[in-house]
Write a structure and sequence with these properties.
It is built from seven helices and five strands, in the order βαβαβαβαβααα. It is α/β, with parallel strands linked by helices and about 180 residues long. It has a single domain, classed as HUPs (Rossmann fold). It is elongated and about 65 Å long. Bound molecules: 4'-phosphopantetheine.
Length: about 180
Amino acid sequence: MSRPRVALFPGSFDPFTNGHLDLARRAAVLFDRVVIAVAHNSAKTSLFTPEERVEMIEASIRGLKGASAIHFTGLLVDCARRIGAQAIIRGLRAVSDFEFEFQMALMNRRLAPRLEIAFLMPSQEFTYLNSTLVKEVARHGGRIRGLVPPIVERRLHDRFRKAAEKVTPPRAASRARRER
Ligand code: PNS
């Protein structure tokens, strides 16, 4: 029997969006297994812990055959080696993504020459979408339905509601509501 084709789909996924889900679905058509890997990035401050991000991804990909989620520290190429991936999946939304992706791909190729990097294009409706924008909209109470999986929508609302309550203690908030 031939070796299963395994792809590693890495990213920050803070949080996972419907654009990411679209790419995971496309990758699942091409590969037997797609492992979505959340990077621990100490240089970036993130809204959700890697464990929370994995949990949201797992709920979002339920039913997607061959897909799973993990988190990892260290180099991406080492993670790929550990799970036996032959390819890395990255999304390209616009030309502006290309320069960074190209640099990263060449560095990864230098580190692991036999690992292929496959770029997939998301559906057109997600070309403007990224996690930072989604967080920004959610932080200010804007509508994010359709941009993220339902579990991510709930978690974002919870997170920002709690943050608002910290700034305005609950008793003060309810008094302010009564007085409005
Ligand atoms: O979603 P992002 O933030 O664009 O993903 C970037 C990510 C996580 C894929 C990249 O930072 C990465 O691979 N990090 C792991 C550390 C590593 O291998 N760095 C060298 C890449 S050339």
